[in-house]
Amino acid sequence: MEEEAIDPQQALAKIVVVIPTLNECKAVGKVVGGVKYVMADYDCTVLIIDGHSTDGTDQIAKEKGATVIYQRGKGYGDALKTGFMYARKQMDAKVLVMLDADLTYHPKHIPALVTPILNDEADMVVGNRWAGMQKGAMPFINRFGNKILSLVAKLALGLNVYDTQSGMRALKSSLLDSMKLEAVGMPLAMEMLAEAHSADARIREVPISYMPRVGETKLHPIKDGGRILGTTVRLMFDIRPLLFFGSIGAVLGIMGLLLHSLTLPTEIAHLVFPYLFIIGATLLFAFGFILVVIRKIRKRK
Length: 301
Prior knowledge:
By secondary structure, the chain is of the alpha/beta class. It has two domains: 232 residues, Spore Coat Polysaccharide Biosynthesis Protein SpsA, Chain A (Alpha-Beta Complex); 60 residues. It has eleven helices and seven strands. A seven-stranded mixed β-sheet has the order 3-2-1-4-6-5-7, with helices on both faces. Helix 6 runs parallel beside helix 8.
């Protein structure tokens, strides 16, 4: 099967593949080499953001032809944000690609991620790992956690994305202007999607493979999962305030009705608390509605 010819205009667009690293000497050389081979016909640069590795990761990356900068802060999210800003301001990147340095994601999928953006069919493209999950690539607890987080994101944030925690994705660099990224750890993946969705960005998913990592994992399923859920709640407050306050209001309203039906007419709980709960619920709904109106006015401006 012959490969499709690349549009000359696509080949001219500056693409930067941003890869955070911390002691990834076993795989980083293969990842950088793989990106360079796959993207040989594009104007593509590999940018390593190294968290001061002690195993020679940065030197291996340099020898393979990557540009290496060093992270001032700490955390996966901080490294990505550092790379995004550097790629845009210092390299004039038009398209940014996220990739890990542990060989879990195959560089061969990068063209499928960037093509919809280069064709102006999408603003962000997410790699869906569930389409090509290899045996042993993800422990059961991680699989379960990922599914739950994606479901929560769909219900709480309105994200129609099946793999919200995928670490392989591409986006227009200009989209950063519409995104308020605060997370410094793993929650950045969720935050990026929520902010892009809030900015009315066109988000697409493409199938990718996911392989067992090379080297030791730095992911803590319980701790990182809790942080991601916490970030999701914050984003729900910021992006969908009516749903956030409405949910709390609905709980208060139901509690008020239950107290009213379960207590005797002479008890204070029957006379006072149900009405307090219902009034509180009404105020919360109203507050959420006001915040929605304020957000819409700000968007128009």
